[in-house]
Design goal:
By secondary structure, the chain is mainly beta. Helix content is 10%, strand content 28%. Strands 1-35-36-37-38 form a 5-stranded mixed beta sheet, with no helix packed on it. It has a 4-stranded antiparallel beta sheet with strand order 2-41-40-39, with no helix packed on it. Strands 3-4-5-6 form a 4-stranded antiparallel beta sheet, with no helix packed on it. The two termini are 39 Å apart.
Amino acid sequence: MIADHFREACMSALSWSQSLACIPRRLVAVVKQRVGTVCARRLGVGPRHPVTVVALGLVSLIVALSSSVEAQSSRPAGEWHATGGDHTNTKYSPLDQITPDNFMDLEIAWRWASISTEVLERNEDIIPPNGFKTTPLMANGLVYLSTSLGQVAALDAGTGELVWSYDPHAYERMIRPANMGWQHRGVSYWEDDESDDARIFIAVQDLRLIALNARTGALYPDFGHGGFVDLSISLGREIDPLRVTHTSPVAIARDVVVVGSIVQDTELEFREASPGHVRGFDARTGEMKWIFHTIPQGDEPATETWENESWRYSGHSNVWGTMAVDDELGMVYLPTGTPTNDYYGGMRPGDNLFAETIIAVDVETGERVWHFQAVHHGLWDYDFPTAGNLLDITVDGREIKAIAQTSKQAFTYVLDRETGEPVWPIEERPVPQGDVPGEWYSPTQPFPTKPPAFDLQGVTEDDIIDFTPELRAEAMEIIAETARFGSLFEPPSVAGTRNPVIQAPGTGGGINWPGSAVDPETGRLFVPSQTRLRTVELIPVEAPATVGYFTDPWARPIPGPRGLPIVKPPYKRITAFDLNTGDQLWMSPHGDGPRNHPALRDLNLPPLGGGTGMAGGGPLVTKTMLFVNSGGRDVESMEDVGPTLTAYDKDTGEYLGSVDLPATPWGNPISYLYDGKQHILVAVGGRPGSPPELVALTLP
């Protein structure tokens, strides 16, 4: 349709300015990248970049590009408009300048020091941030990002120079955000189809939703009340603002801003907690359009899954990570977390819908279209920490619009995203039952039959390290004294009644918020994960507390012999699946791991996976290869694994090399095209002793 529209424009007698007026704004940036840049002000978007282009050539170029751009996503091919690249969360770019042959030639094109550093130097009372975890965006020649303190900055994509910044001063309104402290994972970008308006949205730690002009950084006085929407109200229940915060990018679904939340899940005393309901706001006015109750209320469907009317007081069940959107279908997909509390649910008997569930919601009304619950009555902190990946696949000759939702528990749930039907059978299987007084246990849990698990699930004697007989004997002794073997979904027990079960995956996954990536051209899924073991013991919480039991202080790591892991490698890995068949294609250890440990260095071991870095690593897929944060090999120590960017062959998993970064990357990498050159951009540092920076890499 678009191509036909431009052919008509070419054949008509339209003037130069009239021809430009026919160009959809989402294609303007593609043209600028391929032929230089036109006068963007003439097009009604972006800053001025003067280049002379013949009008007919411009239109012809768009005819050639439009079909491929439309096929991949609604964003220009060389831009990055959402945390996952586009609303479908593929984390895919069709750019192809950086290849296996030249990857190791990448060099730093520019570095930008976060504006949060100056604030922290002036305010020593601010608790140091927990890493620079932003995933930047790039649109119309500008890079957009948030800092760990919730500031917003726009940079020139070619030089890294600051164009504008906005500081909401959240650090003056609160001491420390709930859960993980000062961190923020990114902003969101919206273009108005009815005008040339473009906005940057951020949900700030102090419970405000803010809209900024994408070109100037100015507030919109008519958005919300004086430029802000108060997110502490409109949840239908009074909340504790000290236990709720916002640190993930909001979802953009057509003209609706969809907002989740973080609800603190530690130091709990009472069964009453803030709910994690999800809300949709009008992108132009800030007016709340709808609310979806992740804990159903009143006479809504599924209240019966909260026995004893526990829906009245239970909290959490929140979307603390990102969300994927299908703008064509008009659905946003909510991946929810565990209810109050993570490890004991005696005060919330029942399956507890819509906790730990994938929910397809109509973006205009907030009505539920379908849902799939992955964990019934959660007792393991198996939140969905990341958005699903949307892609189209062909299974046994049938074309399916799919969502592939990866999880902390190392399952990938592949569903028809129109109907919620599993692509391959998901079986309800019996699981172990516990003996904690007052607890309610689900007799079964869902087990996908395809794809296979991407990381260790449960621990048996066969999983214990055996590099040497001595190390294995030491590991077995540790387990005999401090822990016990168990399967996936083995529930926690009360401290002192028996040794705690080894939970695998542990609380952090499996996979975590960096998520997985897909190649929409091949239907392949790439999953970075970590083998992170934990033990959990419950202790009774005495009156007047009403939470029943809780952990003290939280899930604990289980040490192995001489500081080594207690199970066999790999400890971090990348796994690739063909989602057209549900089969695993390959698995590659991610990082050297502890192979230089004194007990192992003489064994001539291959890479074991593991080392510093964020969870399994943030992925980025391009037309030519797979990039993942950290994962360095042939390094002197595990500390050197982290400050790298690693590349793999998409077809085989072959390790292609790692390029050094100034510090460990904590935000996901992105790729964009500027001035005809492919860039890789990633946030690094941001922990004590490591200044937060944005680093851009290009070929010489």
